[in-house]
Design a protein that fits this description.
The complex is a heterodimer of chains A (222) and B (690).
Chain A: E1 3-5, E2 8-10, E3 12-16, H1 20-32, E4 36-39, H2 47-57, E5 60-63, H3 77-86, E6 91-95, H4 99-105, E7 115-117, H5 123-137, E8 148-158, E9 165-169, E10 179-182, E11 199-204, E12 216-220
Helix pairs in contact in A: 2-3
Chain B: H1 13-18, H2 26-39, E1 44-50, E2 58-63, H3 70-77, H4 103-109, E3 112-119, E4 127-134, H5 135-140, E5 151-155, E6 164-171, H6 177-190, E7 202-206, H7 208-218, E8 227-233, E9 239-245, E10 250-254, H8 256-259, E11 273-279, H9 284-287, H10 294-304, E12 306-311, E13 314-315, H11 329-335, E14 346-352, H12 372-423, H13 427-477, H14 479-498, H15 500-505, H16 507-530, E15 538-542, H17 543-560, E16 563-568, E17 575-579, H18 580-599, E18 606-615, E19 618-625, H19 653-663, E20 667-671, E21 680-686
Parallel strand pairs in B: 1-7, 12-14, 16-18
Antiparallel strand pairs in B: 1-2, 2-6, 3-4, 3-6, 4-5, 8-9, 8-11, 9-10, 11-14, 12-13, 15-17, 18-19, 19-21, 20-21
The chains are: A alpha/beta (222), B alpha+beta (690).
């Protein structure tokens, strides 16, 4: 039971979800994809330790976003997938989400190649998702994930929102769409420059079709 | 061949570029000369303006500082672009020098056709040194070094006690009254006149405007401030703050952790700094018990208000100038008006002791370069303001709770007083008075009771909303997710294992599970979408877009109940300023009402029409259906809270509509049986455009 994806062999898949029923049903889907599920049933250690252990016992992971039930984990799935990304290790973030979740994930979005709705998880999307991750590690980006140096214009800032947000427009993307971003996304050294009317450059995936998929990184301010 | 030795040379036009073109305004140029006096340990510095209301006038700046000899003039005063002090160095009086690099001085000196410096060094009390620069000589020369200047040594003149005098003659342009006023203000604020222990440096401008302002600045109204915030950052970047009331008694205090609660956790990476802010409650009631008048304090704040920034004891322009709100106090007040200071009702200063010159002023003297250090100073001051606002809000909440508890007692006392008054009247009129008062009392009681019911209903519904949002969140994360994944797995495995048998026996029930799961997801999404806090921000609301988005969210509900919503929009894009939540709640409540009314009747086609029409800047929005119409309640009473014709109805939907429409500046009306036979609601809203 294994798959050869973009030159990598995937056999075991770590299933990370704080609900037992969800772990079981995801494991069944992994099994249908001709892969061996490894269920993370016990409370997880701190993030870096968890990542090392997962890499040692599996070849890829499927993580839920919220992992906070009981004492299951002290981190969320977005943080975990982003750290897996640093190790060039394929991981899918499989969850349901609303606007607030996207805001919280945005800081890590650059390192989340695949954000998939739970409904869309099936043997095919698992295989395609892992392959997409592996290709991205080799700088072979899918059109929606390729980074471009992009002009960003700040439209508004609202520090009363929780968390504080700023609103931007990407003239090179859908220019009429205002995108809500958490202030935390911006390194603290540039935070004071976030004001309406200010323009800056960042690496962003202008090929993304949905706001939820946009990431921003490598900020350049004048 | 021997190489030709050359050096960089400067065209005389560079003086204009470095002087006039970098000079923000005449007042700031003169302030640069005054800062030189400060650096020279002067205690007095006098600025005289003679006939400056027209071109050709004279400005004289004199001080009693250390004075300069020929060497100091040659190697210091005449050298442009060089700081005259080693970093961290202090003067004999312990001042940290302003460290002007001479560009501001150049701008000032070039204000006239000639500039004359006379200086008498303390080290040589019988001699003085005179230097005159005639700028016309530079106009005629090609290069700066082509013009030679002469420093003349001469016996001291007995007339003046000043040690250094600079005279600018033949001013190129006039100095307006506004310039003089700005100069007077800058001079008065330069050495922190509000400090308890100032540096002893008092520049004086000989002009009537100065006298008026000087009198004003001397009136320190700090004791009339309602609150005084004192926040500090120490050498380790740790902050602390305290707020006292007008008597100087402590109200709140904070350590570093409290200050940065909403910000970044690390220490402030800035030099030691202190932030004082005096905040005034500018209303008549507050000033009834104060020694000064409300108008006096208002005038004082208008002239000197704002938060000024001092570096090593000297004010840095333009922070705290009229229109300069570098801490964005006014913006924060707009976003959360309660308990926030603005530049109109407060005065303050941020004093930074910056011996290492980490804060660097821009060459054109338009403020500091926005370096990390400057942004950290700003972060500290902003955090302190936010912390004070949080504590004051907490205080306001406590006050409101106390007022709520006190209100019935006050009412009883008022009743007793009234009874006493009635008793003191003629016996024959007492009965009539008592009856009239009784009527009033009963009417008032009815009103209060209605308000109480309304508040209770809002609370109940808020709790229901919070609970629904929590359930929506949780159900999306677990049960719905598992049902959905399990149904998909059953479908996949069924097809694979059973083939045709799956299709004929299991496919339909599995698809029904999936369809119902989708409907459940919508329930959650609608709840979460309605509670999105961004929707409560005031901003541009595009009416058609909001209606369309809302209908997309409601679609599964409406489809399930076979309700057809027809949009009949005006052919444009009307928009208004308000919160999306307010407008959304209007449409949501109408749709909810229609769905409920349809549920109680047998009808083949359930229809709702949402129509918009625009006339001038008024949008008419009609929501009409073919349900039962308004029956069993008058159109006057449908807006009242708690009135409902349904057994378990909250009676709040249309009250919310009424309030939301009023918030948006509009009106709402209803017809029992409108165009389609059911209820018809007509809303008129002022719009900004279409």
């Amino acid at each position: 039971m294994s798959l050869n994806l973009a030159g990598n062999t995937i056999t075991r898949v770590d299933v990370v979800d704080d609900k037992e029923d969800a772990r079981k049903i995801i494991a069944m889907t992994v099994d249908e994809a001709q892969l061996l599920p490894v269920l993370e049933s016990n409370p997880l250690p701190p993030l870096s330790q968890f990542v090392s252990q997962a890499i040692a016992k599996a070849d890829a992971a499927i993580c839920d976003y919220k992992l906070s039930l009981g004492t299951y984990a002290q981190f969320n799935g977005a943080e975990a997938v982003a750290m897996f990304y640093d190790h060039k290790w394929p991981a899918l973030l499989c969850t349901t989400w609303g606007k607030a979740d996207i805001d919280a994930m945005r800081v890590y979005r650059r390192k989340i190649p695949i954000l998939i709705r739970t409904d869309d998880l099936n043997p095919d999307t698992i295989a395609v998702g892992f392959e997409c991750c592996i290709r991205e590690f080799k700088s072979d980006f899918s059109p929606g994930r390729r980074p471009w140096r992009t002009l960003v214009r700040i439209e508004d800032v609202d520090e009363q929102l929780k968390p504080p947000m700023f609103f931007v427009v990407l003239p090179g993307w859908y220019s009429s769409d205002k995108i809500r971003l958490p202030l935390d996304l911006i390194p603290s050294t540039f935070r004071g420059k976030i004001k309406p009317g200010v323009r800056f450059h960042a690496q962003a995936n202008k090929g993304a079709e949905d706001q939820d998929d946009l990431y921003f990184d490598d900020f350049e301010f004048d | 061949m021997k190489p030709i030795e050359v050096s960089l040379r400067f065209s005389t036009s560079i003086l204009r570029r470095l002087g006039e073109e970098l000079n923000p305004s005449p007042d700031q140029s003169i302030v640069e000369l005054v800062k030189n006096s400060y650096d020279a340990d002067a205690v007095d510095c006098t600025i005289e303006l003679t006939k400056t209301d027209r071109a050709g006038g004279t400005i004289r700046v004199s001080d009693n500082g250390d004075g300069m000899d020929a060497e100091a003039i040659r190697d210091g005063w005449l050298v442009l672009g060089q700081s005259l002090k080693p970093p961290g160095g202090r003067t004999k009086l312990g001042r940290i020098r302003a460290g002007s690099k001479g560009l501001g001085r150049l701008a000032a000196l070039r204000m006239g056709l000639s500039a004359t410096l006379v200086s008498r060094p303390r080290t040589n009390p019988r001699r003085q040194f005179r230097l005159t620069i005639n700028w016309s000589e530079y106009d005629e020369a090609a290069l700066v070094e082509d013009v030679m200047l002469a420093i003349k040594e001469e016996p001291i003149s007995e007339k003046s006690r000043a040690t250094t005098e600079i005279t600018l003659e033949g001013l190129r342009s006039s100095i307006t009254r506004m310039d003089v006023k700005r100069l007077a203000r800058s001079l008065l604020l330069l050495a922190d006149p509000f400090a308890e222990n100032p540096e002893g440096f008092r520049p004086i401008l000989k002009a009537p405007e100065f006298g008026d302002l000087e009198a004003l600045v001397k009136n320190r109204y700090f004791r009339d401030a309602e609150y005084h915030l004192v926040a500090r950052v120490d050498n380790n970047g740790k902050g602390q703050a305290i707020v006292t009331d007008w008597r100087g008694e402590e109200l709140f205090s904070a350590g570093h952790e409290d200050l940065i609660r909403e910000g970044q956790q690390e220490p402030y990476k800035c030099p030691p700094a202190e932030f004082d802010l005096w905040l005034f409650i500018l209303n008549k009631t507050t000033f009834d018990t104060r020694s000064s008048t409300l108008q006096e304090v208002k005038t004082w704040l208008q002239t000197f208000g704002g938060v000024h920034l001092y570096q090593n004891g000297l004010r840095v322009n333009p922070y705290g100038n009229p229109g300069n709100d570098w801490l964005e106090m006014n913006l924060m007040r707009v976003r959360g008006p309660e308990e926030r200071p603005s530049t109109n009702n407060s005065i303050g200063r941020v004093s930074v002791i910056d011996t290492d010159e980490l804060l660097i002023q821009k060459t054109d003297r338009s403020g500091f370069i926005e370096s990390d250090t400057f942004l950290e100073v700003k972060r500290f001051a902003t955090d302190a303001l936010k912390w004070m606002a949080r504590r004051r809000l907490e205080l306001a909440e406590m006050r409101r709770a106390k007022e709520r508890a006190e209100a019935p007692k006050r009412s009883d006392r008022a009743k007793d007083t009234l009874e006493q008054v009635i008793e003191s009247t003629q016996p024959k009129s007492r009965a009539a008075l008592r009856e009239a008062f009784g009527k009033y009392d009963r009417a008032k009681e009815k009103e209060v009771s209605s308000l109480r019911r309304e508040v209770q209903l809002y609370r109940t519904l808020s709790t229901a909303g919070i609970t629904a949002a929590t359930f929506a969140h949780e159900s999306a994360g677990n049960p719905i997710k598992v049902i959905s994944l399990a149904a998909n797995t059953v479908a996949r495995r069924g097809r694979k294992l059973l083939g045709e048998k799956y299709t004929s026996n299991l496919e339909e029930p599995v698809e029904l599970i999936k369809k119902s799961t989708d409907a459940l997801k919508v329930l959650g999404n609608v709840t979460l979408s309605l509670t999105d806090h961004e929707k409560r921000r005031a901003g541009r609301v595009e009416i058609h877009k909001v209606i369309q988005t809302l209908l997309e969210t409601f679609k599964p509900f409406l489809d399930d109940r076979e309700v057809d919503v027809i949009l009949d929009f005006a052919p444009s894009n009307p928009f208004l300023r308000g919160s999306e939540a307010a407008f959304e709640s209007i449409i949501t409540n109408f749709l909810n009402n229609s769905i409920v009314w349809f549920a109680g009747m047998q009808i083949a086609e359930r229809k709702v029409v949402i129509r918009t029409q625009i006339a001038g800047n008024i949008l008419t929005l009609r929501v009409l259906d073919n349900a039962t119409g308004i029956v069993g309640i008058s159109t006057k009473d449908i807006w009242l809270p708690g009135y409902s014709t349904r057994p378990n109805g909250t009676g709040l939907g249309l009250t919310i509509v009424r309030d939301a429409v009023a918030d948006l500046g509009g009106t709402v009306d209803a017809i029992e049986h409108g165009e389609l036979g059911g209820a018809e609601f007509i809303i008129e809203l002022p719009i900004l455009g279409a």
